[in-house]
Write a structure and sequence with these properties.
With 632 residues, chain A is mostly helical. Chain A is built from 19 helices and two strands. Chain B has 364 residues and is of the alpha+beta class. Classes of the chains: A mainly alpha (632), B alpha+beta (364).
Chain lengths: 632, 364
Amino acid sequence: MTVALRAPGWWRALAYVIVGIAFSYGVSIGARAILGYDPLLDGEAVLTIGLIAVPFFFLVGLGCFDYWFYWAAGRATRPEDHSGHGAYSWKDYFRPNTDHKVIGVQYVVTSFFFLFVGGLLAMLMRAELAAPGRQFVDANTFNGLFSVHASLLIFLFVIPVFAGLANFVLPLMIGAPDMAFPRLNALSYWLLPVAGLMMLLSFAAPGGSFASGWTAYAPLSTSAPIGQEFFTIGVQFAGASSIATALNFLVTIITMRAPGMSFFRLPLLVWANFSTSLLVVIATPFIAASQFFVLLDRALGFDFFNAARGGDVLMYQHVFWFYSHPAVYIMMLPGFGIISEILAVKARKPIFGYRMMAFSLLAIVVLGFTVWAHHMFVSGMQPWIRIPMMITTAIIAVPTGIKIFSWLATLWRGVLHLDTPMLFALGFLTMFTCGGISGVMLAMIPLTIHVSDTYFIVAHIHYVLFGGSLFTIFAGVYYWFPKMTGRMYDERLGRVHFWLTFVFFNLTFGPMHIIGVQGMPRRVYDYADKFAAWNLFISISAFILGLSTLVFLYNMIASWRGGPRAVANPWRALTLEWQVSSPPPVFNFDAIPTVVGGPYEYGVPGAVHGVFKGAEVPAPAGAQAQATTTAE
Amino acid sequence: MPQESTPRRESKRTVQQMVLVGVIATAAGIALGLSIHWFPPANSTQADKIDTLWDVLIIATVPIFVLVTVIVLFAVIEFRMRPGEENLDGPPIHGNTKLEVIWTAVPAILIIGMVTYAYIVLHDIEKAPAAGNPERQVAVTGQQFTWSFAYNEGGKKFTSAQLYLPVGESVKFDVRSKDVIHDFWVPDFRMKIDAVPGITTHYRITPKTNAIGNHDIVCAELCGLGHAYMRQTAHVLSKAGFQAWVTKMTRQPAATGGGGGGGAQAGTTDAKALFTQGNPDTSATACGSCHTLADAGTTGTTGPDLDKVLKGKDAAFIKQSILDPNKVIAPGYQANIMPTNFGDTLSPQQVDALVQYLSKVTNK
């Protein structure tokens, strides 16, 4: 037993969690005793300290920090024996693993777990909204449902699932044996379940879960019950994970490209993640700041947002949206990358206008930082700010349009393989155009004055994040499923999944445009009787949409367990990840490839992207191997 | 490995068909977009301009959606892989500078046009009435979960829980909040603005002649538990009707509760008004926004139905439930939802009056 408690792992993590809870009580009671507070035991104070401290105790117990602590203390670090690499049984997925492919799978599976939880919350919302009046939850629970739904799907699904897919694919694509910082990569992953669990546990908090929306506007959030802090602090962990991963991607892309892999030979997925990582590194600290403000207001009475004491309520929104607008591109650009990969391979043609595709990504990164206040057109901020924000917001449609038109031109005269990934990619093209168009409409201030905070906004963001991001995620998961699992998915079920999703997605979110313009506000658990018919229709469509994901779930689980074995390159793709076995070897490449051409030279006779006759990678030779093969 | 590509070109007929389908779909799409009954009634001069902007945006954007969809559909029909083409590749076309310039420039021009038009509309809907035309100012105050409206008519100040406006005259709203952020929105007028603690925000509207009647007031910014119920009514009256209302209001300053300025000390307390409207002066929330009470005609469901839970209870229990609501929680409801500040926001007389009133009407 003592051995189990000394070695990194779940037993030690459990023991440390208990120590962490005791620590939280100790610090709280001690501080209150010193300051002479009465009573000594304050549940909220303990909980606040616990939410911050216990996750660290858990992560230390699990072993995320072992190597660094030994190194920092000057003690002998355990020699790098690559025991943290690869997965040989399911148990290897439940420990800090340093293999980017294992981490990629951990990320994707975890985020899909939260997709299903978040989707379930949406089902509960739609059940409540099926008819006017109270059905089966109260107002507080309902406000909690949509707040947790949005927070989980943004911070625990869309953002991390893209990080997960890229984690698996990106090092392979650039010809690297792993990410630049494998231990940081493991830590980044383990921060996620902490954040997600924290948000879910908020339902158990006294006074209910956080219920001020994922936007958590002050002063509603600073005066809400304690459940709010599960968001305030949970976001810090999700954000830290995001920032660490983005740094890892940036360093990996800049320093670990295979010989010959110049920037303009990078697959567009790599360009997309490069752009996304820039956004994450620059923007994410702002949401951390906004939530630290809220935490200080709540826990220590800083009065940042207390107008009666000179606080500035609008400042919260500016800081929050300075992250949260770029965040929508964080949730979209990786999807652009996935679509570029799939369209080129499935249309058997080079990407049309490759360089413009890369430059338009960078243009979106830059412009993305200049539009945040379009979320505040009716917030009461200085009126003149609206004008430049309207112009920049509309202009973003230009680089986005370049991408859409280039994809269309890529299809033209191709040989279109209309299988599941391609269907989702084509579905994305049309649905994202719809979301983009309502986005341009929303840039027009006079229209936004009427439709902001209505179901028109709900429709718009779901066309962008569901019809946009989620379609690209489904496309990407089907596309790389053979590479990640070594098995083929069931094509017929994949098509059924696509058509159910495509049809009922539109039936669910399309009518929301109409009731929004007619005047139904969002985030309400009851509504005027005139919206009853459409709401019932939307709820029924939403339930079928929800059920359609079960087809996907079944397909994934059944195919992973018993699907036909996948060959190395079932799609006849040129990019490097398809040139190794499915699933890839533990160290990716037996020989580092040399890149000799572009990634999408389909139709060019005899074209190759990479050749495999470079230097031998040193075999993982147990304890004798040089430390951190991967970091070199 | 990539195969030798074969020439794969669209036939002239395909292009003609595509253009034809595109034109028809665009026309049908625009017709559909313009015929859908999108908006609630247009009851302010501002509403007309915003609705026209919407129509223009429909006309400008439908062709883009049709363009993308038609190209996807025709690419699927024309260029899908046919049996025997499993190993075929498309032609290695890497780009076309002329095309790329076109699809950068054309959307840019379209966008400049839309932004310019939107700017003109914005200017129109926010501009003050021409000099000489009167403009009324109404101070709108939001609080959880109700609105109140302060008037200053010919030097006489009074507050109303309902919004009354004369037809055809511009009104400027000065919007404030007492607690969290709310948003003052009358969908029939189209305009909205947040009510932000610490600052005053504004907008103006002019009710059109077709506006006489009642209009919903909706809170559009999530403000807490009762957000969904923060709905009130705006009454647009003829000019004569409005003057009559003003006369009535200035004659009986405390008629609708909350006004008068004297607060709790001023004479007897109207407990029923207190129940339905709260006390705006001290930001005491209206009981009726969350609780159902048959006698007061309220139907809130955030908190328990008082007709049921207070039946057979004594005055001491009711008083405790108002001042310390977490002490006893009705089955199926949670603690920490009802405000615990009624001891501060209501005077002892007001609490007693409420207790008496509730005791009377729930134990009939």
